[in-house]
Amino acid sequence: MDRVEQAVILAAGEGQRLRPFTASKPKVLIPIANKPILQYVVEALANNGIRNIVMVVGYKKEQVQDFFGSGERFDVQIDYVVQKHQLGSGHALKQAKGKLGNSFIVASGDNIIEPETIAELVTAKPPSLLVKEQKDISKYGAVTVETGMVKDMVEKPSQAGERLVNTGIYLLSKEVFEFVETENNLTSALKQMIGQGYRINAYETTATWLDVVYPWDILRINDIALRGISPSIGGTIERGVSLKGLVSIGKGTIIRANSYLVGPVVIGKNCEIGPGALILSSTSLGNSVVISPSTEVRNSVIGDNVVIGSSSAIEDSIIDKGCLIKGHFIARSGEVEVRIEGEYHQVKIGAMLGEHCSIDDGVVIYPGILVGNRSRIKAMKVIQENIPDEALVV
Questions:
Q1: What's the rounded Cα separation, in Å, for the pair 237 and 73?
Q2: pLDDT of the residue at 382
């Protein structure tokens, strides 16, 4: 049975609806369970024997190239091509044309997948499309499938009915380039192919395919990803520490006396936790994080090099890298209406802090508040409105 040996990963986009977290990094590098989203895609391909990868980069491309390099660390070979203007998935694929063989997988770099997700596609015949059943299809492309073949695709359908969505993962041959010459959108190119009599196979996956669209998706998907971690203790655990459930602790990390950790929790390298800290389920702490005494963190994603002062309480929150937060900080969760890109969403969430924020003692941030990158908040402030990048609140 023939197996495809090459893949294109589309990783050029920005992810505007994820600001402030994509103001300084591309969406594909947002960490989920302490791994960038894009790393899950690379590892899924490698685990299926696909080691020749062409990566289409654009927005903040140097960060992607710095992290993945030649791919050697991930047991793959990565070639990079640049999409200077993000004009669509078909346009992105066209940038890779000169580096591709006869058949290849196309995958989006901003969806979390696992090896099983694409296993069936690897041995299929092009052209093929991976579909997945979803409850809410309004944000995706709906796919009509009959007897294993794609009959139609509709972007962001308004009517109920179809439950299969286009995952953006394909097995294609070089024939597709005849159609992306005139279509910037890959879905439109495939619809043209169907119109000209091409038979496109549909493969349905029940394995992981997770899409990060809004900031609260980071928490939801972090929770799902953490359930698959392997427990490990790479650091120092002092006396009186209680560990329950799946807990992964990186090298050089110290968990101080009388701290209490309830998994699933992942803690990176060279962190200092406690004494008397409470780290509760569905929490990720990056590398070199300091959680001071008597501080509680629950269902939150904390980036690298974050310092959180003593007697703080953080729930359902996202705190990006490099934030310095002093004591008695409160970020509680609540049901709120959040407006992003002109859309209103009812969600349960805490605070959302961009990178390198500086927050003095006794600050309270209301649920659903976005604090921009490099903002500074002076002591004893109660924050009830969104704060732009580089703001000073006195």
A1: 29
A2: 97
